[in-house]
């Protein structure tokens, strides 16, 4: 005896449903609860906004990876054991490093940050303070190091050690979150470089100001 899977359902009805398995089922009782066109569009835009933010994070990660690679190449270039090579090997190694750097620089990531006028002014003030810090390196490396620490403390939720520069902190708080992260990253790189190499005033006096900016990866305008 044949038995319907669903009571009250004829074989013809079942055959029709099997032919159209993706046919939407409309419940007239709940039709009034269907989403409006505005709700549907808003949901789609919310999804796309999440994808944009994910894209920005991935681009920022690539940008950070690029900076780390360039920093590593610079460390290899100035490693002490390079001097153990003969002249030919040194030239060959430097050309190899230059080739990798040139290749790395072909990757160009640009993440633009939207700012209002107060945020532009705050970033300009932060730029000015960092510019002054880097210039101080040529005359008083220890003072510059202390100022760098006070700037780093302004970026952190708690002091690393030493005091916090309130002027820098107030200016930084007026910047966008993206700018705050980038400023912190560059200050951290500068401080790490100073502590690792124990830079002296005599070393820095041999370099021009523009060379110092390039060496510490702190641009004169942090307008990303």
Explain what you see.
- The chain has helices at residues 11-19, 37-77, 87-104, 117-136, 141-155, 166-173, 177-197, 201-205, 209-215.
- With 224 residues, it is mainly α.
- α5 (141-155) crosses α6.
- The protein is flat, with a radius of gyration of 30 Å.
Topology record:
Layout: H1 11-19, H2 37-77, H3 87-104, H4 117-136, H5 141-155, H6 166-173, H7 177-197, H8 201-205, H9 209-215
Helix pairs in contact: 2-3, 4-6, 5-6, 5-7
Q: In a few lines, what is going on in this structure?
A:
By secondary structure, this protein is mostly helical.
Low-confidence stretches: 1-21, 199-205, 217-224
Overall geometric form: flat
Structural class: mainly alpha
The count of helical stretches stands at 9
Range of helix content: 55-70%
The largest sheet, given as strand count, sense and whether it forms a barrel, is: none
In quaternary terms, these chains amount to single chain
Q: Strand share of the residues?
A: under 5%
Order of helices and strands: HHHHHHHHH
Could you give the distance between the termini?
A: 77 Å
What integer value in Å does the Rg equal? 30 Å
Quantity of strands, as a count: 0
